[in-house]
Design goal:
The chain is an alpha+beta fold. The chain contains 20 helices and 9 strands. The longest helix is centred in the middle third of the chain and has 23 residues. The chain is globular.
């Protein structure tokens, strides 16, 4: 049983897509590192990048070409300031070169990046190849990678069900599926978060686990705050207007505040009615995914396209429910992360493999389980909440208009967040012993649905809304 860390599921990075932005970015980093381990930059004249399948069809709208350029220059998506990205890309375009370890390597984004829309590599729809060309146009090194969802990158020969994780399994409580989690929880008489906590401590100190989780929460919270205070139009020819800014203004009224903490304090004290709470949850989710669409810094949870669901539900809990502060943040993220790993190990978190059920559906299930535990639910109820949330996302297609993570992606995060909250409350009012469908059954069903789904609805922009919306889909 492989170990998938909560920090494999939650990763800080740049939008708009974990599979089409973060994955290619990480793949480019791996490719240049692998090249440098065996070759010298003195022998390199230029680099070519080839995208295949879904990466080729929707990569332009997802910023894949941006990601590989920065990755090849060994920029880090966690540390980079998003405000500097445009200038870095502009310099590459003007110089027609990448700066790698102080050396200028010929690279024209217009001619060195190739999109093979009618061809795909054999093991996953998100394939890419990096060719390193030496003197006399001789190929001196080549590397292939697959972006399998959630920012995970694999080399040829991996398990197509996304089952490989980056961390080996030396955990005290190895588990493969929901039944294993329930068995361990029952035996130890502990909640799901306790199991994850024990496993994470096998690789990091308690304080490191806690502080890393709180760092993830701060990034989530900051992306909500920034999205709620940024107006204008999102990048791309669709000209989608930001909505979280106006909605926040309407809800917060004319109150003055400075920074995210004062803002949250005002929200808590506003004593909102049911409709206002619904609007706030929607606002939180919209804010994150508008930031994601604008190439901002967000947390992959478990993907970028679904990055708004978990922050919105956790912010809802921290603003409108009695809570235990940082303790609840840690428990929520540990529980949610483990549910994400269950889907990764047993199905997929890649929209190119399973459609949007693999993104919004999984994130909604994760959020539902995390909220259930924080509201006092048992392990059985948390697993039940995850099952309920996913059950009502089965078959959801991925059909981004123009290849941008905007329509219908941004609104779907609001819907996924509301479904997660509802699933948690249904589970809390239910006896899991009466449940007919288990989380394991849903994971299996989701994987079978993914395999049966028409390829047009797997992040290709060849079907659904992407096909029927009257825009020119050639220029992304």
């Amino acid at each position: 049983m492989e170990f998938v860390s909560v920090f494999d599921i939650f990763k800080i990075g740049i939008g708009p897509s974990s599979s089409h932005t973060m994955g290619p970015w990480r793949a480019a980093q791996k490719a240049i590192q692998k090249f440098l381990s065996k070759n010298s930059l003195e022998n390199l004249s230029k680099i070519e990048v080839h995208f295949f399948g879904s990466l080729a069809k929707t990569g332009k709208g997802h910023g894949s070409q941006m990601a590989v350029q920065l990755g090849l220059m060994q920029e880090d998506p966690v540390e980079i300031d998003p405000a500097t990205i445009a200038d870095k890309l502009s310099q590459i375009k003007n110089d027609k070169a990448l700066q790698i370890q102080g050396k200028s390597i010929a690279f024209d984004p217009e001619t060195n990046i190739h999109f093979h829309s009618d061809e795909k590599l054999p093991e996953h729809p998100n394939g890419m190849r990096f060719n390193f060309i030496g003197n006399r146009k001789k190929l001196i090194f080549s590397a292939e990678y697959y972006s399998v969802g959630g920012g995970f990158v694999e080399e040829p020969g991996f398990d197509a069900r996304d089952k490989n994780a980056e961390t080996t399994n030396n955990s005290p409580y190895p588990n493969l599926n929901a039944d294993d989690l329930l068995r361990i929880s029952t035996k130890e008489e502990q909640p799901l978060s306790w199991i994850v906590w024990q496993n994470e401590k096998a690789f990091r100190s308690e304080e490191a686990v806690k502080q890393s989780l709180l760092k993830i929460w701060r990034c989530m919270r900051n992306s909500i705050h920034k999205g709620c205070h940024s107006e204008g139009v999102l990048p791309g020819y669709l000209k989608v207007k930001r909505r979280a800014f106006k909605l926040n203004q309407q809800l917060i009224s004319s109150k003055n505040y400075s920074g995210v903490n004062e803002w949250m304090s005002i929200i808590r004290k506003s004593n909102p009615n049911f409709q206002q709470i619904l609007k706030w949850v929607s606002c939180f989710a919209l804010a994150v995914n508008e930031e994601n669409a604008a190439f901002g810094k967000i947390v992959t949870a478990p993907t970028n396209g679904a990055a708004g669901v978990i922050p919105a539900v956790l912010m809802f809990h921290m603003c409108f429910n009695p809570h235990k502060g940082e303790e609840d943040v840690v428990r929520f993220l540990l529980t949610a992360g483990e549910i994400g790993s269950v889907f990764k190990k047993g199905s997929t978190i890649s929209a190119a493999m399973g459609g949007c059920q693999a993104e919004i559906g999984v994130s909604s299930a994760m959020a539902a389980a995390g909220l259930t535990e924080c509201l006092g639910g048992s392990a059985e109820q948390a697993l039940m909440a995850a099952e309920i949330a996913m059950e009502h996302h089965l078959g959801m297609t991925c059909d981004p208009v123009g290849g941008f993570v905007q329509i219908p992606c941004i609104e779907r995060n609001s819907m996924g967040a509301i479904k997660a909250i509802m699933a948690a409350h249904i589970a809390l009012e239910s006896d899991p012993a009466d449940a007919k469908i288990s989380l394991n059954t849903i994971v299996k069903t989701m994987w079978e649905t993914a395999k049966d789904m028409n390829e047009n609805y797997k992040e290709t922009s060849d079907g659904g809304l992407a096909k029927n919306y009257p825009v020119n889909l050639i220029e992304c």
